[in-house]
Design a protein that fits this description.
Strand content: 5-15%
Number of helices: 10
Largest sheet: 8 strands, parallel
Length: 343
């Protein structure tokens, strides 16, 4: 029962709060040699291995051209054998993209030239000029962007390639999947692949868009569907690439067109055994959902699976593999692919 206060006793406006305990704070040891910075965001460890971003300098270079690839009317891209493509300016707004990636917690976003430009197939002088503009402008983008290099493929310029690979912002070399269409291509590319292998950086194998019937000099190989380009390149690499370049790490866009699943099914039917996966081969996950990623993991394991989105042509998505598996695919495995070191 509540009792009345005695006459003359002051009544508090509010009940007295219980005394607060001061939390104990563990001191952080410091010394003149230790610099304390802000703690990193727990989610800012994700890596997107596969995006495309055209810099203003590169776009202007395309606008100055009078032959394919070129831009007319400010934003209409013309390429060999394809219909005009209207570029969305906001998709290549650098600061907009930077804020978008940082808001999504990306630590590194790896950008490259879109395959449909086919700059690698231009005559050497043209290819070197456009690729040089791309490298200089893209490597200056700043965090979180880093760069996949390109290289002329009609005629090689190995000094140009090695100089590009030596840049800290360059993570490796992107190659068109059709450049590995058969074993003869593998032999032809030997000097290029050897240069990348010496750099300690990886190769990313990227398909190109399908074009219509081969007109205006478009090679027939460009009419091959993207998944078939990737399957062919994957088969070529497994037929001789590893033996030729045993320490070179190679990543295939879009789960290599599911080539490992096809091969595993065929091998199981022939011998009852599944082929062993190559520890230096990795599989980027764009264009596929959880079911395909899970099926690949059952064949090649979780370790070779690495996240990529293909932004701005596709948007990043979370395949909901579970917390541990997501961390592996989005953070741990990509770092292993890029550095060759397990995290």
């Amino acid at each position: 029962m509540r009792t009345a206060a005695a006459p003359g006793t002051p009544v508090p406006a509010h009940p007295a709060a219980p005394p607060q305990r001061t939390p104990r704070i563990r001191p952080v040891p410091t010394s003149p040699d230790v610099q304390l910075g802000p703690l990193p965001s727990p989610v800012a460890t994700r890596i997107d291995l596969h995006q495309h971003l055209l810099t203003p300098e590169f776009l202007d270079a395309l606008r100055r051209r009078t032959s394919f690839p070129r831009i007319v009317d400010d934003w209409t891209l013309l390429t060999e054998g394809e219909s005009p493509y209207s570029i969305n300016p906001s998709a290549h707004d650098i600061e907009r993209r930077r804020m978008q990636e940082l808001a999504e917690g990306k630590a590194d976003v790896l950008v490259s030239l879109p395959g449909n430009l086919r700059v690698e197939d231009l005559p050497l002088a043209d290819a070197r000029e456009l690729i040089g503009i791309w490298h200089r402008s893209a490597t200056a983008l700043g965090a979180p962007f880093r760069v996949w290099a390109s290289t002329p493929l009609v005629d090689f310029d190995l000094d140009f390639l090695e100089e590009s690979l030596a840049h800290d912002a360059v993570v490796g070399l992107q190659l068109p999947a059709m450049s590995l269409g058969d074993v003869d291509d593998l032999q032809r590319l030997r000097p290029v692949l050897a240069a990348v292998e010496r750099s300690g950086k990886p190769v990313l194998v990227h398909p190109r868009h399908i074009v219509a019937a081969p007109v205006n000099g478009v090679p027939a190989v460009d009419t091959v569907p993207r998944s078939e380009q990737l399957k062919a390149a994957w088969n070529v690499w497994h037929e001789g690439g590893h033996e030729q370049h045993p320490t070179l790490r190679v990543g295939f866009i879009a789960l290599a067109g599911l080539a490992p699943l096809v091969e595993a099914a065929a091998a199981a039917k022939r011998t009852g055994k599944v082929v062993r996966s190559d520890p230096n081969v990795f599989y980027e996950t764009s264009a596929y959902d959880r079911r395909a990623i899970d099926a690949m993991a059952r064949v090649v394991g979780l370790g070779p699976l690495v996240h990529g989105s293909d932004r701005p042509f596709r948007q990043p998505r979370d395949p909901d593999l579970g917390r541990a598996s997501n961390h592996a695919v989005f953070s741990v495995n990509p770092r292993t692919f890029l550095t060759g070191r397990s995290v």
